[in-house]
Amino acid sequence: MWKYIVRRIFLGIITLWFVVTITFFLMHSIPGGPFDMAGLETMNPAVRQNMEARFGLHRPLYEQYGLFLRNLAIGELGISISYSPRTVNDIIALKLPVSAKVGGLAIVITVFTGIILGIIAALRQDKLPDQLVKVFTALGITIPS
Fold first, then answer.
1. 15-29 confidence digits (pLDDT tens)
2. In the prediction, which pLDDT does 46 show?
3. Residues of 49-73 as b/e, b for ≥16 C-beta within 10 angstroms?
4. Cβ of 133: how many Cβ atoms within 10 Å?
5. β-pair partners for 79
6. 84-103: per-residue pLDDT in tens?
7. Neighbours of 104 (CB within 10 A)
8. Could you tell me if 91 and 80 are in contact, meaning their C-beta atoms sit under 8 angstroms apart?
9. CB distance 68 to 24 below 8 Å
10. Which of 1, 28, 71, 110 could potentially form a cystine with 76 if both were Cys, beta carbons 3.0 to 4.6 Å apart?
């Protein structure tokens, strides 16, 4: 059992690394940069260079990637560009309780509804309530949130 758990954790870490790596390089492959937003196009070149130096964007891509992975591993997500001078960690800490509350409530409602509908479908197999539960379930899975 422990071998299975360790293997799953290892595969989860590898999958997470792949997703982070692909996201990093895809974000660097699109045209433009973080300072090309509306209102920042007319930024003074000296200010732009200082901002790029502050966020490490003047470094080669492999150095940016290594720094990104190191900071991600220690949980240091840096300064927010949109909400400067606040850090991303501060913003997450501020928003996490509300998100966790909404997510937890959604899980409770989903589990409760799923158990009730499962009982109804099991008690009325191959009858109209069972068919309606199947349709409702299929719609719930296929319709995007």
1. 999 999 999 999 888
2. 84
3. eebeeebebeeeeeebbeebeeeee
4. 19
5. 87
6. 788 899 999 999 999 999 99
7. 10
8. yes
9. yes
10. 71
For the record, the structure tokens of 101 come out as 């509350």
User: DSSP readout, 56-120?
Assistant: TTTS-HHHHHHHHHHHHHHT---B-STTTTSBHHHHHHHHHHHHHHHHHHHHHHHHHHHHHHHHH
- DSSP code of 37? S
Backbone angles phi, psi at 79, to 5 degrees: -90, 140
Instruction: End-to-end CA distance of the chain: give it in Å, rounded.
Output: 35
Note down pLDDT in tens along the chain; length 145 residues.
899 999 999 999 999 999 999 999 998 888 877 777 656 567 777 887 887 887 788 889 899 999 999 999 998 888 887 777 888 999 999 999 999 999 999 999 999 999 999 999 999 898 998 999 999 889 888 987 7
